[in-house]
Fold these 4 entries.
Entry 1:
Amino acid sequence: MLGALVLAAARLFGGEPAPQSAPGPVVRVVWDAPASCPSQVEVDAAVRARVGERAVDVSAIVSATAEGFSAELAIVSDTGTTHRRLASPACETLVEAVVLLAVVATDPVPTIGSVAARIQGEPTIPAPTAPPPLPLVDAAAPEPTPVTAPPREDARTRTRTFWPRLAAFAVVGGGTLPGVDAGIRGAIGIATRYVHVDATALYLGPRRITREDVTVTLDAWSAGVRVCPVVPLPTSRIELPICAVAGVGQLRGRAEGESLRNASPGDQPWVSAAVAPELAIVVHRRVRVVGGLELGGTIVGPGFTIGGLDRVWAPRRFIARGQLGLEIRL
C-alpha cells in the first residue's frame, strides 16, 4: 500500500522520466583538395543538404593533373561501400559528382526521380509501408512524374590532348662568350602528355675581352628548335622532359683600339646543338616553374681575329648553361 502511494506521488509531482532521444544519423565528410577547389566546409554543407536523414561517410582526396583535377573517392553507407576515381577539368564539377554519388549511395532503391528530387532539394515520394503483390505498383499512390537528369558530357571527351604554351627563362652558363654567358631565352610551342615541341630564341648579353690596347665586345643570338620527350612519373605535379636542342644564329663582335688592322668580320655564323634535361613543377594547372641544364657543343663558330694579335676569341667546343623560368599553358 505504501509503495503504491509513493509511486503515485512520484508520477503526480515528478512526472514520467522523459525518454532519451536516439542519436541522429552520422554524416562525415573528409575533403582533401588544392586551395583552388571548394573548401571542406562548402563540400560538407552540400553533402548534408542533399543526403537528408541518412548516415554516410564520404572521403575524397583531390589532386591537380595536367588535364585538370582527379579525385579518389570512398563512400560508406548503410547500403554498402563505393570506391570511385573521378576526373574533371574543373574542381567544382568534382564536388557535384561527389554529392550525386553520396545521394545514390544512401538511397536503398535509387531511381532517376528520387535522386534528382533530392539533388534539387525536393522531398521524395515515400515507399509503401507494405510491399504489394507483384508487379510492385502502388495503385493508391499517384505515379511520380519521371525526372530526366541533364545529360553530362563524358569527361574523356572534354580532356584536351595538347596545350599551346609560352615560356621565358633566365640563362647562365659558359663557353660561348668570354667569361660568364648570361642572357634570356623565350619559347613558344605545343605540349602534350608525352612530348613538348618548341620554337626558341636565345640572346646572350655583351661580354668584353681586352688584348693589349684593343677591346672587343661580343654578344650572340640564335633561333632554334627543342623537341622534348616527357619521362613518365608516378605524380602529376612534376614533369621531366629530356630535350634535344639545335640552334642557328650569329656571334657579333665590335673592336675598339688605336692599332686596329685586318680585323675579321663583325658578324659570324654560330651553330650549336645540345641535350637539355628539364624539371617542371606544377603550381597551377596552367602554370609551371621550370629549371634545366643544357649540355652541348659549338658546331660552327670561327671566332674573331685581329691582325697582329691572332685570334682574340672563339667559342669553346663544349658549352654548358643552366636556366630557370616560367611556363604558361593556354
Entry 2:
Amino acid sequence: MFSGQVGNVLLSGLVWGAGFQIQACPKNCLSPYVMSMVPAGDGVWKVSPVVNAAESKPTKNQKRQEAREKARALREAQSKKSKRNKIIIQSSLAIGVVGVIALVTVLIMSSLRPPGPGPANMQSDGIKIGEGLVAERTPALLPDQLPVPSEENANGVPAINIFVDYSCPACAQFESLYGELLRTWAESGTATVEYHILSFRDAQTAGTRYATRASNSAACVAEFSPDSFFTYNDLLLRSQPVPPTSYELTNEQMGQLAAAAGVTNLEEIQACIEDETFANWVSQATARAMSTGPVPVRNSEIPLVLGTPAVLVNGKEYQPQTHGDLASFVASLEESE
C-alpha cells in the first residue's frame, strides 16, 4: 500500500506483481477515479480505468432511456417516409370499409363453425409481449369461454394492442413502417405489444382461406413457442403474398417461417398448421372483435374493430390521419397521464 498527495489530489494505491492500482480523488470528492498501471515494455506503462462490474451494468431506467432515444431517432427517420404514411392512411380507411362489409361474412362463418378451444397464452384473444420479447403466459380459453382482457401495466408502461389480419395489405405496410420501433419498445420494456389475430378477409384470397390459415399458424406459435411470436408475426407480415401474383403462403412456407423465427417445438407447430387446430377459435375471436363485442382490451374506447390494422394505446385508438406517426401518439399519451 502507498498514499500521498499531488497538489489538490489525494492518491492511494496497491502494488501487485509488476503493476499498480491507483485511486485518485480531489479533496471532498465522493467517488475516486480508479486506474491500473502495468508495464507495456520499453519503459512504457499502460494506464487503464478499472470499472466496477456492478456500476457498469445499466439500470432498468437507463435501458428504458436508451430505448426512448432509439425510438426518437426512429421517429425522425420515419418523418422522411411521409408518402408511405399516406399510403397506410388511405389503405386503412379502405380496409375499414371492407371490414364493415365483411361483418356479414364473419357472422355467417362463425355461426357455421362449432366453438373451439383457444391456444395457450391468448386468454385475452391476444398474446401480450413484454421485456425481452417474452410472452405473458395465460391459460387457453375453453369453448364458449369469453376472453379476459390483459391487466394494466405497472409504472405507466404503455400497453399497445394491435388487431391484424395477415392477408391485409395495410397490416403489412404498418409492420414495415413500425415493426422495428415496436421491437425496440418491447425488447426494452418501454411498452408492451399485444397482438390480436383476425381472419375477415378470406373472401379476398381467391379461395385459399389464407386469412384463417395464417392466423391459425400464428396461434400455433403462441401455443407451442410463445416467446417466438413477435418474430414470427413480423416475418409473416413481411412475407405477405401480393395478389394477383399470389394469394397465399403454403402450409410448408409458413412452417419455414416458423423455423426462421427460431421456434421451439417445430414439429408440433407444423402439425398444428396442417391440422388447422385453432381455425374455429380464430373465427370466434374475429366475430367477438368485429361483430358481437366487446373489444377484449381494457379501457377500450371503441366497441368493435371495423378494419385492420386497428391500434389501441392504453385503450385509445391510434388514427394516423389525426395523430400523425405512432411514436408521437404514444409520447403524447405518456405526457398526458
Entry 3:
Amino acid sequence: MAWQTLYLFGIVDYNFLLFIFASTICSYGFHALLNISESSTTDREKWNYKNRKHLFISIVLSGMVVVMTSFHYLDNIFPILLAFFAAFLYSAPNLSFKPFIWLRRVAFGKTIYLALVWTYITAILPLWLQNQNFNDHQILLYVANRFFLVYAICILFDNRDLQADKIKGVKTITSFFSNKYIQAIYYCSLIASILFAIGINLDGKHLEESIYLIIAPLIGLLLYQKSTQSHGLFYDFGLDGLMMLAAILQIIHLNWLKFTTL
C-alpha cells in the first residue's frame, strides 16, 4: 500500500519501504504481546502466548531496523515521530494505567483511529516525507479513497472482535450502533471510496489508477454478510489482502508490461 503511494506520485524511496515493513512487524508484535495471557481464548491469542518469546525477538530486531532507517529522515523527522506516537496510541488502551484505560471508553476510538493510522502511514506519510503539496486535489482524493476503504474493512474486524472488546471494556462503533446502522455506515464508506476513486480520473489522465482503486471497494460491497459467517483466513488474508488489492494489481500489470516488451 505504501509502495502504491510512492509509485502513483512518481517517488522512489526503498528506505521508506524497509522502514514501513519493519515498523509494521514491530508495532503489531508489541500490540500482540499486550493482548496475551494464560487465559487467552482465541486461537490467535493462544498462538501469540505460546510464541511470546519469538514475538519479543521480532520486536527487538524490527525495532533496530526502524531506528536505522529513521536516520534517513532526520531533516524531516516530525512526520516519523507522529507515526511512532500514532502506533503507540493504538496499543495504549491495553495498558493497565489510568490515562490509557480511559481510551477504552471512547466509542468510535478504535475503528476511526485505526483507519486514520493506516491511511496516515500508507498514504500521507510517504508523501509528507517528500514534501509533496497536499493542496493537490489528486492527493486529497487518493487519501480519501484509502481512508474510506480501510474504515469499512475495520468495521468488519470490529464485528469479529465484538465479544473480545466487550470483555476488555473497549468501545467500538459496532458496540455502539445496531447492526442495521453498522451496515449503512459500512456501505456508505465503500461508496464514498468508489466515488473518490472515480474523482481521481476527472481530468481523464488517470483511468488506470482509478480502475485499480475502484475494484477493492466494489468487492467489499459483497462481503458484509459473508464476514458474519467467516473466521480465520477470511480476515487474516482475505480482508488484509483486499486493502492491498489495488497495489497488487498494479504490480502484476507492470510486470506483465515488462514481460510483453521483452
Entry 4:
Amino acid sequence: MKNRIAIIIIMLLLGTIGLCLIVKSGDISDDDRENIKENVSFYHNTLATPPIPQSVQFCGENVPIQTYWVREGLEKELIIHCYQHSRTIQTFKRSGRFFPEIEKILKEEGVPEDLKYVCVAESNLENVVSPAKASGYWQFMESTGKNYGLEINTTVDERYHIEKSTRAACKYFKDLYKKFGSWTLAAAAYNMGENGLQRVLTEQEENNYWKLLLNTETSRYVSRIISYKLMFEQPELYGVQFTKTDYYKPVPYKEISVDSNIASLVTFAKDQKILYRELKELNPWLRGKSLPQKGTPYIIRIPLKSEFQYVELY
C-alpha cells in the first residue's frame, strides 16, 4: 500500500515539474513579443463571415439572395475562397495576365463579362486536367471541344489555347442560353451537361436554377462563380490587399504564321532566338515536340525577347 502511495506521489511530482517546464518554455519576453508584433503587423487573419450584398446579379439576372439556401450557399463559397488563402491569392495574381484577353474576347463575342468568372471557377485560370479528363482553362471535355471547333490530338490540343478555347466557350454559352433562356441555367448546363439539366427541369417541372434540387457539384456551381465575382469586384471588402505590381502581367509577344511541318519545336525555338520553355509557356496548346502541318496555318506566339526580366514586365 505504501509503495502504491509513493508511486502516486512521484507521478504527481513529475507531472508538476513537466507542467512548470512547459509553462517556462512558453514564456516570451516583452521585447520578443514586440518584435513579433512588428514582423507580422501587416498580417491580420480574422475569422468572420464574409459580407454579402443586399442585392446580387449574375450576367444581369437577379440572384434571390434573400432565400435562405441561396444566401447560405453563396456564404459557403465565400468562406472557402476567403480563407483558402494560397489558392485565392494565386488566382488573383493570374487574373492580371489572362483577364485582359478573356474580357476582350467576351466583348467581341457578345456575351456577358461575368462569364469570365466561369473560367476562374473551372480552372483558377490554369491549364489543368480534371479527374473526368476535362482540360484547359475552360475545362472542355474532348467531345464538346471538338463540337465547338477545337483541334484535339496528340500534337495539338486547343483546349489549352487561351484565345480559341475562350471563343469556343462563348459559342457554347450562347447555344446554352438560346436553349434554356437564362445565363444562370446556361452555367448549370455548362457544368452538368445540357441533357442532364434538361432531364432535371422536366422531372421537377421547374425552370429556375435556384429552385432546383441538383447534384452537389452543380448546386454549388453558380454560387462559386458569383463568389469570385464579388471578390474580384470588391477586393478590399474581402481583405484582398494587392497593389498593381502584385498581379502577373501578360508577356509581350508577336504572332507568326506557320504553314509547314516543324520537325523539332526545340530547333524551331532556337531559330526564333527563344527558349523551348518560353515557346511552350506562350503556346501550351502545342502538346508534342513537333508540329505536323495539316493544311491550315498555325498561329504561334513568340515573346518579343527571350528571358524578360521581372522589372521589364512590372
